[in-house]
Design goal:
With about 775 residues, the chain is an alpha+beta fold. The chain has 15 helices and 33 strands. Strand 22 and strand 23 form a beta hairpin. Helix 2 crosses helix 3, helix 4 runs antiparallel to helix 15 and helix 9 crosses helix 10. The longest helix is centred in the C-terminal third of the chain and has 40 residues.
Length: about 775
């Protein structure tokens, strides 16, 4: 039957195909009558997963012919859905809250696309809308929440605010520990037939009181289905591989053990994916070696190790632990490019001109003996002083100079600079926040970043040249409607801009914003308009990096995509195109799941940290940036806490503020003080809502910086008390920032750790946050 499904889909895709029922398809496919039951089963299974649609007369067509679009739905906190169609040629479809049916976040669904209004141009920048008609596949059936009791029944409030419905549950059965009201529990979803009723489930695990030690992180692990342990068979396979490189492993490899190979990683890293070496070549050129851990030598297709790695999709870096993709015997030991030991690599060797242009590229398996392991802090300290006679330190300076030339060329060719400072949370031995450190994308990070980007691009180009099936990193251009909304926002703040569909104009705008006090807030607005990067079998290019050919090759210890690419490049065993497509879709989902888990793991620690401040009666003041102004208050980004939040006007005691809709700012009645986008203020925590996962702030003392670009005055104000609604500002309604602690960098480059990367970045800092964006659309 497996061979029937692709034949059916191919028949339905033919230009001369007319809707046919099962008997007619039997003849069309030239099948004997005896195979009719097999054909009907195949049709039924294809219909269940949204690959075919059945219309009047039991005839079958492609879903899109009936305006039925299969895809994966993302939900925001307000209940609105956004469909990512399976067909990469289709645009995102917005699903109103009332039309999401029984779909939950990340479910695969079938959506009926609404008919566009008559007279509207096909290319008009209007959002496509639709309605969920069927849930094809649940992404998750287990949910973590807080147990509560109504008048006649028990219910669970889900921790995930994107699930707006409480889950009805019966009295819990014996689970080894009693369930008390207020406990964190895990619920298995049993039934949800109509959105007009609440979903029903059953408590399958009691985690304990939310304030009990360890329950906060256990809740995150269960909510995102992150495994704490590897299956026994996986550990046995990893143990059987051994712990050292053997002479047999060296066959067919280029020996690079005499090269001055080094690694640069975060101070707490153990999984060293990449290493570099640089030497002078003839004619003023440079020879750069980028070595990547040869995971594919040890993890073979068809093994339990490979199956578990694919299932996990990637390593997940929580605030207090790492959930690795591979067992530590591989991820932290045999595959990790540790210093002073032999390690197997896949090497990309570059010949680069003095100006930073790639002249030639080679690919081969190698063996290295890393001479030194640097942390980023150590590398930066060396780069900030004059080089010593130490040849490795001299090489570090040379790589830095070359990387900066390559970086300038990259931006010259259209790559976007969307760098934001980051924050890393340090915990004490009891799991409480000890301090929050600010990190920046300094030259030590940029050095590695540029080397990894070169390797990723070179591998993608080679795969396309060979015509081999593979997985690519894809970042599509922004939707035209979102760009137009952002352009209107810029103009409303007197920031000149032209056609943002031109990358050169986007670069000019971003450079201009870097010089303005209001710039960081408006830069966040641009991130809202960007699409999320994903994996696909089609090389659709990378908008943020301005690259037509791009993939992920440099992190196979912690990203399954890179492991697949290694196999495609060197072993030609990446898999059949249909299997690769399923893998690309799967690891795109696991990547988003890990990003959400990483963000939530920081949230729970931050909420506890801020709650303790409230209970002490002495909340600390924090500098903050105003990122959005509404008639009920204003949103702020608080870098020192790595989070965003709302300052409600009801908590502003110094004056009564009214909202000037024409200029999109707040004005104090008595003091005439103005609060606008881009202002710097000082805030203190005022309220922590763990159920909604939101933090409200109040103003402490203000250290306001006035923007050089002041919106034009217009007579009259729209006066709105904080508790009431009011006139909306002109132009598009800004999206509410994501819940506090959200990751604010956009994973696009992937040359480094998956937790960071704004377009073009390969930082290894895993404790990051994303910019406020609609539906938290990380790249």
């Amino acid at each position: 039957m497996n061979d029937l499904k692709p034949r059916i889909e191919a028949a339905l895709a033919r230009k001369d195909y007319l809707p046919a029922n099962a008997p007619e398809l039997l003849r069309l496919l030239r099948l004997p009558p005896a195979r009719r039951p097999e054909l009907q089963r195949a049709l039924r299974e294809l219909e269940q997963v949204g690959r075919v649609a059945r219309i009047k007369g039991d005839r079958y067509i492609q879903p899109r012919e009936a305006d039925l679009i299969p895809g994966r739905i993302r939900m925001n906190r307000q209940g609105k859905g956004f469909l990512d169609p399976d067909d990469p040629g289709l645009k995102e479809i917005t699903i109103p809250e009332s039309a999401t049916g029984t779909a939950l976040h990340e479910d695969r669904v079938l959506v009926r696309r609404d008919v566009r209004p008559r007279g509207l141009r096909p290319d008009a920048p209007e959002p496509l809308t639709g309605e969920v008609v069927r849930v094809l596949e649940r992404r998750r059936t287990q949910f973590v929440g807080t147990l509560q009791r109504g008048r006649q029944f028990l219910y669970v409030i889900p921790d995930d605010p994107r699930i707006p419905h409480d889950l009805y549950v019966p009295e819990p059965r014996d689970l080894g520990r009693p369930a008390r009201l207020g406990d964190k529990v895990v619920v298995e979803l049993k039934a949800w037939e109509s959105r007009h009723t609440n979903p029903e489930g059953e408590i399958i695990e009691v985690l304990g009181a939310p304030d009990a030690e360890g329950v906060d992180m256990l809740s995150v692990l269960r909510q995102y289905d992150l495994p704490l342990h590897f299956p026994k068979t996986v550990l046995q396979e990893a143990h059987a591989i051994g712990s050292t490189v053997t002479p047999r492993d060296l066959a067919g490899r280029v020996d690079c053990r005499r090269h001055r190979v080094i690694t640069i990683d975060p101070d707490d890293a153990k999984d060293f994916d990449d290493a570099i070496c640089l030497e002078r070549a003839a004619n003023g050129h440079w020879r750069l070696w980028v070595h990547i851990a040869d995971v594919s030598h040890y993890v073979k297709p068809g093994t339990a190790l490979d199956a578990e790695a694919r299932k996990r999709g990637n390593s997940t870096y929580l605030v207090d632990r790492v959930i690795p993709m591979l067992p530590e015997a591989l991820s932290n030991e045999l595959c990790s490019l540790k210093p002073q030991v032999d390690r197997l690599t896949k090497c990309v060797e570059f010949l680069i001109s003095h100006e930073g242009r790639v002249l030639n590229t080679k690919f081969y398996p190698a063996v290295i003996h890393s001479q030194r392991r640097f942390t980023y802090q150590e590398a930066l300290a060396i780069l900030e002083r004059k080089p010593t006679p130490d040849p490795i330190e001299q090489m570090l300076h040379q790589v830095h100079e070359l990387a900066q030339r390559i970086r300038r060329l990259r931006f010259k060719h259209g790559s976007l600079d969307l760098d934001f400072p980051e924050s890393k949370i340090r915990l004490d031995e009891r799991g409480r926040i000890l301090r929050i450190e600010k990190t920046v994308n300094d030259v030590s990070h940029q050095l590695i970043e540029e080397c990894m980007l070169l390797a990723n691009e070179a591998v993608a180009a080679r795969l396309m040249q060979l015509g081999r099936p593979a997985v690519y990193r894809v970042h599509e251009p922004p939707d035209e409607r979102r760009l137009q909304e952002y352009r209107e926002d810029l103009l409303s703040h007197n920031v000149p801009c032209g056609n943002l569909r031109q990358p050169a104009e986007v670069q000019k705008v971003l450079a201009r914003l870097n010089t303005l006090p209001i710039g960081p807030a408006l830069k966040i607005g641009f991130l809202k308009s960007l699409m999320r990067a994903r994996y696909a079998v089609e090389p659709l290019g990378h908008y943020g990096l301005a690259k037509k050919k791009y993939t992920h090759f440099t992190s196979p210890i912690r990203r399954y995509a890179d492991l697949v690419v290694h196999r495609a490049l060197f072993d030609q065993k990446a898999g059949a195109p249909s299997a690769l497509k399923e893998t690309a879709e799967h690891i795109s989902v696991t990547e988003r799941n890990s990003a959400d888990a990483e963000r939530d793991s920081k949230d729970v620690k931050l909420f506890a940290f801020l709650n303790a401040q409230l209970k002490s009666g002495r909340p600390e003041p924090y500098p903050a940036l105003v990122t959005d102004v509404r008639n009920f208050g204003f949103f702020v980004d608080v870098p020192g806490l790595a989070m965003s939040g709302l300052v409600p006007l009801s908590l502003v005691e110094e004056d009564f503020f009214v909202f000037d809709a024409a200029r999109n700012l707040l004005v104090g009645r008595r003091t005439r003080r103005m609060i606008r986008l881009g202002d710097n203020v000082t805030v203190q925590v005022a309220k922590v809502d763990r159920f909604k996962k939101q933090v409200d702030f109040r103003l402490a003392q203000t250290a306001r910086t006035r923007s050089r670009f002041t919106p034009p005055a217009r007579p009259g104000f729209s006066r709105h008390a904080p508790q009431h609604g009011g006139a909306k500002p002109p132009g598009p309604k800004p999206a509410r920032p994501p819940r506090p602690g959200g990751n604010r960098s956009h994973s696009v480059s992937g040359g480094g750790r998956p937790a960071r990367p704004t377009p073009g970045q390969v930082s290894r800092n895993r404790q990051t946050r994303t910019a406020p964006a609609r539906n938290n659309t990380a790249l």
